[in-house]
Amino acid sequence: MSTFTQERVPDPAGLRRALDERGYLADPGLVTALFLALRLPQPLLLEGEAGVGKTEAAKALAGVLGGPLVRLQCYDGLDAAEALYEWNHARQLLGIRLAEARGERLAEADLFTEEYLLRRPVLTALTHPGPEPAVLLIDEIDRADDDFEAFLLEVLAESAVTIPEVGTIRAVVPPVVVLTSNRTRDLHDALKRRCLYHWIDYPDPERLVRIVRRRVPGTSAELAEAISTAVRRLRSLEIQKAPGIAESIDWLAALALLGVRRLDAEAAGATLGTLLKYREDQELVRDRGLEWLVGSGRDA
Questions:
Q1: How far apart (Å, rounded) are the C-alpha atoms in residues 44 and 96?
Q2: Alpha helices of the chain — where are they, by DSSP H?
Q3: Is the pLDDT of residue 242 over 70?
Q4: Which of 259, 271, 196, 208 is nearest to 235 (CA)?
Q5: CA-CA distance, 291 to 126, in Å (whole number)?
Q6: Over the stretch 165-224, which tens digit does the pLDDT of each residue have?
Q7: pLDDT for position 49
Q8: Rounded CA gap, 162 and 183, in Å?
Q9: Could you give phi then psi for residue 260, rounded to 5 degrees?
Q10: Is pLDDT at 7 greater than 80 in this prediction?
Q11: What does pTM read for this prediction?
Q12: Which has fewest Cβ within 10 Å: 10, 12, 220, 297?
């Protein structure tokens, strides 16, 4: 870690202040996990329900460190070539034609060098020159399959990858690696062993108020508190997708845009689509009662 980063992040309290300056309000447990990931250093696996701020944590950390955020969004069928590199066939063909025009002969090995690599997210992060490290966000690793997890082991353990035609490429400035998972499936122990682990829970009502007011400036504490209370009530229902931080921010932003100063049943009903994305969930809430949802702070 560079001297700048050590000065910027001298301890967990310093990291918490730096994250706060970038609009990310982290609880002490998450701050400690991020700090240890920087200083040990070791990849960090963040798990939690969708919308609790896992991806935003990596973005905020990149902002604190001053290096680039390199994001790899995982999905079913993702393979190593899409995550790591591909050969630039067009450039290889151009190289062949230029050599022919000059009367030169190219060996096969001449066409499989780093010059002809198209860097995908993992290789981009590993070859970032620094001085500040890149933050490699491997987002929703639980959506990728088992083979991709196995491919990542070398990256996580050694900050290196092996390309058959080139050899092993080792990071000069190892990236800070943050993996996120919504826990749609269990990850392998081999991957977990290489990572620190932290579970991000929903923020408590008071912190949610602070977060949404930070993200939607100019809104009243009363409206933010009403939203926080309503979101907590929604989580007590058996809905398919409980609202997270992002949906809470969207709701407050929508209400502010519409000029709503006090949350009532009519305003909640008109904007429920910013919060709940399943028709069945909306019907469940309407059956329970919008008046209940926006009650005056008392749980039913």
A1: 44
A2: 3-8, 12-21, 28-39, 54-65, 80-83, 89-101, 121-126, 146-158, 189-193, 205-215, 221-234, 245-257, 265-270, 279-288, 290-293
A3: yes
A4: 208
A5: 53
A6: 888 889 989 999 999 999 888 899 999 999 999 999 988 889 999 999 988 988 899 999
A7: 87
A8: 29
A9: -75, 125
A10: no
A11: 0.84
A12: 297
CA distance 89 to 46: 37
For residue 237, give both structure tokens.
Answer: 């229902």
* 58 Rama sector, left if φ>0, alpha if ψ -120 to 50, beta otherwise: alpha
Phi/psi at 32 (nearest 5 deg)? -65, -45
Residue given tokens 């909306």 in the structure block: 282
| Per-residue model confidence (pLDDT) at position 300 | 45
Please name every residue paired with 7 in a beta bridge, in sequence order, or none if there are none: none
Rg over alpha carbons for the chain, rounded to the nearest Å, is 24
Contacts for 265 with CB less than 8 Å, ≥ 6 apart:
290, 291, 293, 294
pLDDT tens-digit profile of 41-88? 899 999 998 888 999 999 999 999 999 999 999 999 898 888 988 888
* Contact call for residues 244 and 229 (beta carbons, < 8 A): no
Tell me how far apart the alpha carbons of residues 224 and 227 are, in angstroms, rounded to a whole number: 5
| Confidence check: pLDDT of 298 > 60 | no
Of the candidates 73, 168, 84, the one whose C-alpha atom is nearest the C-alpha of residue 119 is 84
